[in-house]
């Protein structure tokens, strides 16, 4: 994190905030979100999508992240 900005990250790395960020428009304020280390309030500054390159849909990504969290 640099000056409060997390930069781009794969959704599966931080699913608690990553999926919330995907669900809203760029520029939206999101939160509060309860996290193990506290609470987060963030603004979505931008998004990058690799799904067109990898062929993974948003729903498939959510399913994979859920499976990973449950294992």
Order of helices and strands: HEEHH
Largest sheet: 2 strands, antiparallel
Tally the helices: 3
| Terminus-to-terminus distance | 27 Å
Number of β-strand runs: 2
* Global structural class: alpha+beta
Low-confidence stretches: none
Q: Tell me, what's the shape?
A: globular
Give the percentage of residues in beta strands: 15-25%
What is the topology, as strand order, of the major beta sheet? 1-2
Structure commentary:
The protein has a two-stranded antiparallel ribbon with strand order 1-2. 4% of the residues are buried. Helices cover 37% and strands 18% of the residues. It is of the alpha+beta class and 71 residues long. The longest helix is centred in the C-terminal third of the chain and has 13 residues, at 58-70. The protein is built from three helices and two strands, in the order αββαα.
